Amino acid sequence: MRLSTLSCLLSTADSLSPRPRVVVSGGTHGNEYTGVWVLQRLQLRSAELAEQHPSIAIETLFANPPAHAANRRFIDDDLNRQFSAATLADTTASSFEAGRAKAIAADMGPKGAAADAAVCIDMHTTTANMGCTVIVSSYSTLALRAAAFVHTHWDDADEASPPLPLRVMVEECSQCEAAHLASVARHGIEIEVPFVDGADADGALPGAVVAASLQDRDFAPLRAGEALFEALDGSLVPYDGSLGEVVHPVFINEAAYYYRESGRGVGMSRPVEWPVL
Ligand SMILES: [Zn+2]
């Protein structure tokens, strides 16, 4: 997930008053790791974010830790289908996620226009060929405006690498009917990004990801000193030249390479001259 998307949304939330709660959630589906990784990064940057956005209180919510620990979408039931007003009021539901939804709603709610949390931005990943998608609901004018803002600034948000396509999807529903987690707050926004299974075999997240400037540059030369990885704290880790002054990265962001046993999210190749036989 590009942090610039989130930054755009946070900038939009800055127009709210006075110092509203903005909850950024991830891990709603336990096997979607990108959001959990971004949460860790936001927590590391909390002081910086507070300085950049002084008019809002930015919080992080790790929505379903047990499902994440088990590397499963959910334990008993899909958490992102538990937040309609009717389901939240159902006292007979006994699944883990039904209870978890009630706890989240008690903290951010009461669900709807009077919710304590002004905005919830819930981060997801998808295996479908959807590029990046911002999903908003027709009942929230602010969410619609935020999505339009991100869409307008999408192409110039990151000059280092051409962005994936961005689409905005609007769900036609009332807030009462909406069953997704973000619908608890006064305004809800979901972000879907392409799926990358970044977890190690033991469930640990990577300490760094491939630098954005390297994305889609398979077989292009990379010189010693140029950015190779981006650490959790946002710092860039340069290529150290240990495999030669110039290398040609391949399999950039190959999901299988994030496993400790398989590699580090990128492979290195060097061109060779073969004798003509
Ligand atoms: Zn999801």
Automatic annotation (TrEMBL):
Keywords for this protein: Hydrolase, Metal-binding, Zinc
Highest rank taxon of the organism: Eukaryota
Domain Succinylglutamate desuccinylase/Aspartoacylase catalytic positions: 19-193
SUPFAM superfamilies in UniProt: Zn-dependent exopeptidases
Cofactor(s) of this protein: Zn(2+)
A GO CC annotation given for this chain: cytosol
Family to which this protein belongs: Belongs to the AspA/AstE family. Aspartoacylase subfamily.
Protein name: Aspartoacylase
Species whose genome carries this gene: Emiliania huxleyi (strain CCMP1516)
